[in-house]
TrEMBL record:
Key words of the record: DNA-binding, Metal-binding, Plasmid, Repressor, Transcription, Transcription regulation, Zinc
Positions annotated to bind Zn(2+): 95, 98, 135, 138
Origin superkingdom: Bacteria
InterPro entries: FUR, Fur_C, WH-like_DNA-bd_sf, WH_DNA-bd_sf
Name of the protein: Ferric uptake regulation protein
Transcription regulation recorded as keyword: yes
Cofactor binding, per record: Binds 1 zinc ion per subunit.
Species this protein is from: Acaryochloris marina (strain MBIC 11017)
Family according to the record: Belongs to the Fur family.
PANTHER family noted in UniProt: FERRIC UPTAKE REGULATION PROTEIN, ZINC UPTAKE REGULATION PROTEIN
Length: 141
């Protein structure tokens, strides 16, 4: 646990971020989960043992982490911004019933053939979102 905490502090410092309790708490929370929470869900989680964080400080911590590339926004639903501390290239699966979002490792899907695009389209980056299926909580078996 202490090791993990030291690692987080080192990571924040290496990115030139001042280590504040809020940034630490938000980043640690995001690293420990893979459900791509909203800022509100992070705030609720941090406050479950008593109020320590306001939505505004969580949000500004997220922006600071995002600006240095430790956290990315995941926009899979209109008007809903979720956050991800997995900054390696990866794909997403989104359950059509409960909305759960799960990471899919990059090498689990075949690379797209970008050479098949019409000439003139220059693509440097893509990621795939798989929709329309169910997670195993919604469709057990
Ligand atoms: Zn589901
Ligand atoms: Zn993700």
């Amino acid at each position: 646990m202490q090791q993990q905490a030291d690692k987080i502090i080192q990571t924040l410092k290496a990115k030139g971020l001042r280590v504040t309790p809020q940034r630490f708490a938000v980043y640690a929370d995001l690293l420990a989960r893979s459900d791509h929470p909203t800022a509100e869900q992070i705030t609720n989680h941090l406050n479950q043992d008593g109020p320590t964080s306001s939505q505004a400080t969580v949000y500004s911590s997220l922006q600071a982490l995002r600006e240095v590339g430790l956290v990315r926004e995941v926009l899979l639903e209109e008007g809903v911004c979720r956050y991800d501390a997995n900054i390696e290239p990866h794909h997403h699966f989104r359950c059509q019933s409960c909305g759960a979002i799960e990471d899919i490792a990059w090498d689990q899907l075949q690379d797209l053939d970008l050479k098949a695009l019409r000439p003139g389209l220059q693509v440097t980056h893509y990621e795939i979102t798989l929709y329309g299926g169910y997670c195993n909580r919604c469709h057990p078996e």
